[in-house]
């Protein structure tokens, strides 16, 4: 058998009668498939535990996920191969804590609210892969490292050192947060995942079948940054936000790395190193996007690729041919005197 515990937020306020009706319908439906459990309602939140056969519990949880009466559904725990039900006599016992003034139940309300708030905070600091593992009810620390092929994206702000030397701490944070907000939103929309922020840069990765989405993400970020520069006030530091991008594809090791004091779920490998070096090469070749031959060869869409020549990348014995895209937004890298005067 399987057990799922989840918590969620209500889309709108429910009356006591509506809550009672939810309980009655749940009892009737769950009896037919031998699901047992409890549903706790408090403030504007649901907390529910359901037990039953693997298939029935999973089907019910998926159905719950489609219910428009709640959102931000957070799976707190999944237990498999259980032998005993927690509530064998309850096909669904509904408890409305808002109607209960018992002082003994007040700590339960506080506990459930604290759990929800804590998970919401953790979501902001944790990458999507870890959240997916947690939402499956698994312990991320138990996941073993695996070798897989990824498309790696490195990006950072051009001339950030020179820019940050001229800005206040508040203005520097404005630049960084605006940049990371744009990059993260677009990378996520294109199916990628931001793995980490590193100073004024970031590392992200995509599935191998999403090579074109990685390219589109770079182009879309550059376009939005250009709009940001054009639409910002003349004296705004956002006028200075430009970015370089490096893309490579290859085998990486994905998993937990670190020590007992600090863990990081990340990727390592030659493709990661190469993507980072390609991004640094943007300064030399004066193109905002530099990509490897593997990216060029594995793309499916008709990009206007151009060869930038062969280069000795740090750590590699042989020269590598690198490419870019013939597009005005890529070609206008430009760290000329005019841009430097803007920084001043």
From TrEMBL:
Listed SUPFAM superfamilies: Acylphosphatase/BLUF domain-like (SSF54975), Nucleotide cyclase (SSF55073)
Record-annotated Guanylate cyclase domain positions: 151-279
Domain of life: Bacteria
Subunit structure: Heterotetramer of two alpha and two beta subunits.
Location of the protein in the cell: Cell projection, Cilium, Flagellum
This protein's name: BLUF domain-containing protein
Chief location category: other
Keywords annotated in UniProt: Cell projection, Cilium, Flagellum, Repeat
Domain annotation BLUF: ranges: 1-93
PROSITE patterns according to UniProt: BLUF, GUANYLATE_CYCLASE_2
Phylogenetic lineage: Bacteria, Pseudomonadati, Bacteroidota, Flavobacteriia, Flavobacteriales
């Amino acid at each position: 058998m399987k057990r799922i515990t989840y918590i969620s937020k209500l889309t709108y306020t429910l009356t006591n009668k509506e809550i009672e009706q939810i309980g009655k319908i749940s009892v009737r439906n769950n009896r037919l498939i031998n699901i047992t459990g409890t549903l706790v309602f408090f403030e504007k939140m649901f907390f529910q535990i359901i037990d039953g056969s693997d298939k029935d519990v999973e089907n019910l949880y998926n159905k719950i996920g489609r219910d428009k009466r709640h959102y931000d559904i957070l799976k707190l725990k999944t237990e498999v191969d259980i032998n005993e039900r927690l509530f064998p006599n309850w096909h669904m016992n509904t408890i409305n804590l808002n109607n209960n003034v018992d002082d003994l139940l007040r700590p339960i309300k506080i506990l459930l609210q604290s759990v929800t708030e804590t998970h919401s905070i953790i979501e902001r600091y944790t990458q999507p892969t870890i959240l997916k593992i947690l939402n499956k009810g698994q312990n991320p620390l138990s996941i073993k490292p695996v070798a897989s092929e990824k498309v790696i994206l490195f990006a950072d702000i051009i001339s950030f050192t020179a820019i940050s030397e001229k800005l206040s701490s508040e203005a520097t944070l404005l630049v960084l947060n605006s940049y990371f907000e744009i990059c993260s939103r677009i990378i996520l929309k294109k199916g990628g995942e931001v793995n980490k922020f590193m100073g004024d840069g970031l590392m992200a990765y995509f599935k191998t079948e999403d090579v074109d989405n990685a390219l589109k993400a770079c182009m879309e970020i550059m376009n939005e940054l250009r709009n940001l520069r054009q639409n910002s006030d003349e004296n705004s530091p956002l006028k200075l936000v430009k970015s370089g991008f490096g893309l490579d594809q290859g085998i990486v090791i994905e998993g937990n790395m670190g020590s007992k004091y600090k863990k990081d779920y990340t990727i390592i490998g030659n493709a990661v190193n190469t993507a980072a070096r390609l991004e640094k090469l943007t300064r030399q070749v004066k193109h905002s996007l530099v990509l490897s031959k593997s990216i060029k060869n594995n793309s499916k869409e008709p990009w206007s690729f151009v060869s930038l020549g062969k280069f000795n990348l740090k750590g590699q014995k042989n020269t590598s041919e690198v490419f870019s895209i013939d597009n005005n937004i890529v070609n206008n890298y430009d760290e000329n005197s005019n841009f430097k005067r803007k920084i001043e």
